[in-house]
Amino acid sequence: MLKGIFSLDNPVMRFLSKVADIMVLNLLFILCSIPVFTIGASLSALYYCLFKIKDEEEGYLVKKFFHSFKQNLKQATIMWLIMLLFFAVLFLEFLMYREVTGTAGQMVRSIVLIGLIFWYLIGTYAFALQSRFYNTIKGTFTNAVLLMFANGPRSVGIIGLSAAAVIFTLMQKDAIVLWNLILVWILFGFAALATINVQFLYPVIQKLMPEDAKAEATPDNAFTVDEEADLSSLGYGPAPAQTQDKEDWSAPEPESAPDPESHS
């Protein structure tokens, strides 16, 4: 009986194992995000590992995380700095108009709120794509916008649950409750929220994958990421032969905009 309880095939043990994985990933994400400018690479690595967990691939999460972190450090950092610049603009607009009354003040604050929603969603899709595919920065952001609109209900789910978690935390006035919630965020909050996002993003990413990549898992020690991905509908072209462990899918300017409905 005890053997059955502690078996790795036991649903309870599988659940506890995933909770432990989320806690490890959350710690790695926080530690690698401390310099602030590395948050983009940390997000890419976090999504990379969570997608691999969703694929039910076994292996060492720490090794996977730092592999993806190193692989995406340069481009994801540039992407994050661009995102940070836009956030700074929105934040400054809010500071300038937070005390302004009347229609003008309400309009600017509404624009800032809408801007923050799009900022979060574009970042979520962009770093999820960055974790799985090579592309130019412009191409990744463009495709993130297309996928955001093409998968409207999923985007609403992502922003709705994420906003609910943040607002619930910020609304707490009791110091003890607030500090307990902060502890939850430190233990597994960021990775747990990203895990929820992956539930919405996984079918979207899978549509971009070839059938053979869906059917056959990649060995952990190979670190070959999503080979032969079919991204033609998003403007990606075939990559030249190379020895890199992540396929390079550059995105030349398409003659006509791709149809977002094809990804719904």
Count of strand segments: 0
Per DSSP, the total helix count is 9
Structural class: mainly alpha
Can you give the mean pLDDT? 81
Which blocks of ≥5 consecutive residues have pLDDT under 50? 217-233, 236-245, 247-264
Major β-sheet profile: none
Report on this structure.
The protein is mainly α and 264 residues long. It has helices spanning 2-5, 11-33, 39-54, 61-97, 102-132, 137-150, 152-170, 175-207, 211-215. The chain has one domain (2-263). α7 (152-170) packs antiparallel against α8 (175-207). The chain is globular. The relative contact order is 0.12.
Topology:
Layout: H1 2-5, H2 11-33, H3 39-54, H4 61-97, H5 102-132, H6 137-150, H7 152-170, H8 175-207, H9 211-215
Helix pairs in contact: 2-3, 2-8, 3-4, 3-5, 3-8, 4-5, 5-6, 5-8, 7-8
Q: What tags apply to this protein structure?
A:
mainly alpha; disordered C terminus; 264 residues
Report a brief summary of the structure.
The chain has 264 residues and is an all-alpha fold. Helix content is 69%, strand content 0%.
